[in-house]
Amino acid sequence: MPVTARALITSGEEFRVSDPILVVRNLRTEFKTRAGVVEAVSDVSFDVQPGETMALVGESGSGKSVTALSIMRLLDDTGRIAHGSVEFEGTDLATLDEKRMRAIRGRKIAMIFQDPSTCLDPVFTIENQLTETLKIHDYPKARRRERALELLRLVRMPDPETRLLAYPHQLSGGQRQRAMIAIALALDPQLIIADEPTTALDVTVQAQILDLLRDLQRDTGTAIVFVTHDLGVVAEIADRVVVMYAGKVVEQGPVRSVLRDPQNPYTAALLRSMPGAVAGRGDRLTPIEGVVPSLFQMPTGCRFAPRCRHAFEHCVDHNPPLAEITFLRESRCWLHDPEVADGRTMPSHREPQPILGKVVS
After folding, report:
1. Which helix (H) or strand (E) holds 194?
2. CB-CB neighbours of 45 under 10 Å
């Protein structure tokens, strides 16, 4: 059971005392394939507090995007939520019919997708696509254009009057992503799910988009679930982090403490593989050997065991539980069970971690 961040902790990270706006419990998402049913997300649980940014992080294939799409109920026809609950403001989204879900999607929960060039319709102007969202949710017709222009100004779109009449191909990558953020903000949602919204952008534009999201969250109080594979972005924008591997949550906790002192071998391996994380100038990076396992050939025990430098015999055959390690910290690793670890301990990583220029300490 995940620890709900509802208290103050001494590391300097402060959490609001409030009920979670989103509660995901034991989520399992499956897909039908010609070779059979595969489990893309397994037993995922976490909470999101009002007004916070929670990052979902992991390699490609770890289940981050499928988790996000499951929350939004945007899985394709072959996918389904097979088990678990997704409670938003006390309503289990996993059990809603499509009509009731559409009333929530866009109005109360919105999503920013990874690649705006494939999400924006090339044959409609930005105005058409902004006002379409407003039209679906019965926004007053007389105010739709005014609201669309207001949204472009809100996301700091250059020359918003001109961009409102432009087609997607007439905008730069950063401008297209600003348009996508504007669409997500159209109806003042309480929760935004951002699925790698900066991946397709260059570093300068990426920084601008991160600054924009931070400022918008401060001004509107919107909670954000930020999906990314980049721990540098996590250090910049997140309050808490949930680390996923092969469809499972392997660690979660306040971002500073997780990045400063990872309690799972996978999190530690991610940090070691990053430029500027633990390696000094001129030092060789330490890659994570191997690849994320195939959905058709998941390991019997710990899913990271085949790639883990600290794995031992018990890890190969037994799947570790997600257990509370310290206050507000959870990790999935047998090294935290003294009876199983038999004297083995989690290596210490307590030195400050400079993540892409930002020292996390």
Report:
1. strand 191-195
2. 18
Q: Phi and psi of 269, rounded to 5°?
A: -65, -40
Question: Closest Cα to residue 242, out of 50, 8, 40, 67?
Answer: 67
Task: Please count the other Cβ atoms lying within 10 Å of the Cβ belonging to residue 319.
Answer: 17
Where do the domains of the chain lie?
Answer: 1-108+190-204+219-361, 118-188
Six token digits for residue 97: 């019919």
Q: How far is Cα 74 from Cα 72, in angstroms, rounded to an integer?
A: 5
Nearest to 13 by CA among 254, 252, 237: 254
CA separation for the pair 311, 265 (Å, rounded): 9
With a CB cutoff of 8 Å and minimum separation 6, the contacts of 128 are: 121
107: tokens are 């109005």
Level-2 CATH architecture, domain 1-108+190-204+219-361 = 3-Layer(aba) Sandwich (3.40)
Helix (H, G, I), strand (E, B) or coil at 60: coil
Q: What are the mean pLDDT values of the chain's consecutive 10-residue runs (361 residues total)?
A: 41 58 97 94 96 95 95 95 96 95 94 89 96 92 95 94 96 93 93 89 86 90 94 92 97 94 94 69 80 92 95 94 91 93 72 45 44
What pairing do the DSSP bridges indicate for beta strands 191-195 and 109-112? parallel
Instruction: Identify the residue whose tokens are 């979902």.
Output: 56
Token pair for 24: 């995901």
Task: Tell me the pairing of strands 248-254 and 353-355.
Answer: unpaired
**H/E stretch holding 223:** strand 223-228
